[in-house]
């Protein structure tokens, strides 16, 4: 199979990670969850009592505590200095503060460099907020996933229930709307659709339907690139 890079962007809870993981597995590509990298920095800030706006200290944390990924039987694990933090970085305290951390240009610059290094050898599926516009502007396939705020709040609510995390639907919807605003209005690499990205509205679609849609777009590109 002709190796390409696939960039999947979209707002919070639009299904980016779920879709990206499945596609990477189906194609035998490497999956890179850039959101997990920003979550890891946020988690480190909480652990080390560093302010979410203290850019210099946050960059220091990135330099001192390398974030790596490892494939396990349960999927991809996120490690900080060898410790599995996959569950810890999904806690509400991290979720509610990650937008503030990821809005800092110095933090983004550090992590973007690491992400570009991962994708240099091709065969990567990367999801985030600015992959198609900033991280991998040369990606052969760019997808922009969207869904209504109410649909995304329902998904997040179900995810939390499955993990045993107590949450309230209305609060989740407000938090998602707030994240949308923060992500799309930040100065550095705001959330926006790349000009050459394909828009896929996942409202009312099943995971399988979304995967099929995106894989067909990618297959067509790979056939043309042979």
Care to give the gist of this entry?
It is an enzyme of class 2 (transferase). The chain has helices at about 15-25, 35-45, 55-65, 90-95, 100, 105-120, 130-135, 150-165, 170-185, 205-225; strands at about 5-10, 30-35, 65-70, 75-80, 85, 125-130, 140-145, 200.
How would you describe what is shown here?
It comes from Tetragenococcus osmophilus. GO terms for molecular function: ATP binding; dCMP kinase activity. It catalyses: dCMP + ATP = dCDP + ADP; CMP + ATP = CDP + ADP. Belongs to the cytidylate kinase family. Type 1 subfamily. This is Cytidylate kinase. By secondary structure, the protein is of the alpha/beta class. It has one domain (5-219): Rossmann fold (3-Layer(aba) Sandwich). 51% of the residues lie in helices and 17% in strands. It contains 10 helices and 8 strands. A 5-stranded parallel sheet has the order 2-6-1-7-8, sandwiched between helices. A hairpin with a 2-residue loop joins β4 and β5 (83-84). α1 (16-27) packs across α10. The longest helix has 19 residues, at 207-225. It is globular. The termini are close together.
């Amino acid at each position: 199979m002709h190796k390409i890079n696939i960039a999947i962007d979209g707002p919070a809870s639009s299904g980016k990670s779920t879709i990206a993981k499945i596609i990477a597995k189906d194609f035998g590509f490497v999956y890179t969850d850039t959101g997990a990298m920003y979550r890891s920095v946020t988690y480190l800030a909480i652990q080390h009592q560093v302010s979410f706006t203290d850019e210099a200290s946050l960059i220091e944390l990135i330099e001192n505590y390398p974030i790596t990924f490892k494939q396990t039987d349960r999927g991809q694990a996120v490690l900080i200095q060898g410790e599995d933090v996959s569950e810890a970085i999904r806690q509400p305290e991290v979720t509610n503060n990650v937008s503030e951390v990821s809005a800092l240009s110095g933090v983004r610059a550090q992590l973007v460099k690491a992400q570009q290094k991962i994708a240099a050898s091709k065969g990567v599926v990367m999801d985030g907020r600015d992959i198609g516009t900033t991280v991998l502007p040369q990606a052969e396939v760019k997808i922009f996933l969207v869904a209504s705020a109410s649909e995304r709040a329902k998904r997040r609510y179900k995810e939390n229930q499955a993990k045993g995390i107590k949450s309230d639907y209305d609060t989740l919807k407000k938090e998602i709307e707030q994240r949308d605003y923060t992500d799309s209005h930040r100065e550095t690499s705001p959330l926006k659709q790349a000009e050459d990205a394909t828009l896929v509205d996942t409202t009312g679609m099943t995971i399988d339907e979304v995967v099929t849609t995106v894989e067909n777009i990618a297959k067509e590109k790979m056939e043309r690139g042979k």
